[in-house]
Known about the structure:
By secondary structure, this protein is mostly helical. The protein has helices spanning 8-14, 22-49.
Amino acid sequence: MDECKPKIADELLKMQEEPLLPVEKKLIAWSLILGVALLVVLAWVSATFFTGQP
């Protein structure tokens, strides 16, 4: 019964590589920029408002 089912690994090997579309590249770039910017904001807020001084 399992012999009839194609295996995922075999199907992945058969697939052709597709290049990223320009809009996908823009989404990746914006996501990385937003992530880095939010990390900077989080670090600033943490250092400004939540200092460990008693």
